[in-house]
TrEMBL record:
Record pathway: Pyrimidine metabolism; UMP biosynthesis via de novo pathway; (S)-dihydroorotate from bicarbonate: step 3/3
Organism: Octadecabacter dasysiphoniae
Modified-residue entries (N6-carboxylysine), positions: 104
The family this protein is said to belong to: Belongs to the metallo-dependent hydrolases superfamily. DHOase family. Class II DHOase subfamily.
Name of this protein: Dihydroorotase
Subunit-structure text: Homodimer.
Annotated residues for binding of Zn(2+) 2: 104, 141, 179
InterPro entries in the record: Amidohydro-rel (IPR006680), DHOdimr (IPR004721), Dihydroorotase_CS (IPR002195), Metal_Hydrolase (IPR032466)
Length: 349
């Protein structure tokens, strides 16, 4: 149980079940920032070129470990990027050797660096069946890419057209529907009996589509899946604070330089690695649900992945608004930090 008073709470150390660390200079700048609060993170494989094989995942893990500050015990939990040519034996070996924790499914063209993703889901069925056999989880970017489907409907259509058929054909596959953004997804996860959970990002608990588009376009709020109507944000908050073990934190913190965000065709992603715990505490406190924060950030995720929760703890304190930098400098250029649009009274002690 969390130790709690109105202005102080101690919870098990959190994990981030969906994180982009990139590579090179960007990785070096952002990795220590996630490691400051989080014990573990599921690392997204959408590099250029993507991390497809077990050997590539192992090499990427070594580069991440080398970017950690002295003495950090942060554990990157690696993923392989599923393609139509993925070799099931390679994945099985990497899982057995503890190199990967999950596999990532991007529908081809759905988001940043997803061109090598899956177009024909029948082609990956043998891989999915093998994963189900050995208990290797599938993390899913749940959006269809059909240009005829409205971008605000792409998650709901994905559930009906892609995810339901996959789960019907491979019922033992352990699935994580990542960064859910709709009431439809929340309901679908709630109604499922087993082998389905969802991550929710920090930013989708805070912004709706008006924040992106009303009163001038805000590129720093543009991410994928794009934030939806307010009723969907409310459904996400309700799921996050419910204590339901099938919903847990995956920040999807996705750093892009300002130069790449502020383009006529700017990149998708919100960078929340530094202020996520403050933002979440604010959201949970406003909902009168501080007692459910630990489940969301520190318990439900490891439980679904079959891992033990972290032994160590963090303490959050409420007081004068915490000051975060508005951007982080990297050798590639500045990266703007997510602005929740309200003061953050909670901070990690
Ligand atoms: O907003 C996003 N950014 N969504 C994704 O799915 C990918 C990510 C990225 O890699 O930048
Ligand atoms: Zn992501």
């Amino acid at each position: 149980m969390p130790k709690q008073s109105p202005d102080r709470i101690t919870i098990r150390r959190p994990d981030d079940w969906h994180l982009h660390l990139r590579d090179g200079a960007m990785m070096e700048a952002v990795t220590p920032l996630s490691a400051a609060h989080f014990a573990r993170a599921i690392i997204m494989p959408n590099l250029i070129p993507p991390v497809i094989t077990g050997a590539q995942a192992g090499a990427y893990r070594d580069r991440i470990l080398a970017a950690l500050p002295e003495g950090s015990d942060f554990q990157p939990l690696m993923t392989c990027y599923l393609t139509e040519d993925t070799d099931p034996d390679d994945l099985a070996r990497a899982y057995e050797d503890n190199i990967i924790t999950a596999v990532k499914l991007y529908p081809a063209g759905a988001t940043t660096n997803s061109a090598s993703g899956v177009s024909d889901f029948d082609k990956v069925r043998p891989v999915l069946e093998r994963m189900a056999d050995i208990g290797l989880p599938l993390c899913v970017h749940g959006e269809v890419t059909d240009p005829n489907i409205d971008i605000f409907d792409r998650e709901a259509v994905f559930i009906d057209k892609v995810l339901k058929p996959i789960r019907k054909k491979v019922p033992d596959l352990k699935v994580i529907m990542e960064h859910v953004t709709t009431e439809n997804a929340v309901d679908y996860v709630r109604d499922s009996r087993s082998n389905l959970a969802a991550t929710i990002t920090t930013h989708h608990l805070i912004i709706n589509r008006n924040h992106i588009l009303a009163g001038g376009i805000k590129p720093h709020y543009y991410c994928l899946p794009v934030a939806k109507r307010e009723k969907h944000r409310i459904a996400l908050v309700a799921a996050a604070i419910s204590g339901d073990k099938r919903f847990f934190l995956g920040t999807d913190s996705a750093p892009h330089t300002d130069a790449n965000k502020l383009l006529p065709c700017g990149c998708a992603g919100c960078f929340t690695a530094i202020n996520t715990m403050s933002c979440l505490a604010e959201v949970f406190d406003a909902a009168g649900a501080m007692d459910k924060l630990e489940n969301f950030t520190s318990l439900a995720g490891p439980r679904y992945y079959g891992l033990a929760p972290n032994e160590d703890t963090i303490t959050l304190i409420k007081g004068e608004p915490a000051i975060y930098p508005d951007h982080v400098d990297t050798a590639d250029g500045p990266v703007t930090v997510f602005d929740p649009g309200f003061p953050l009274h909670w901070r990690v002690a």
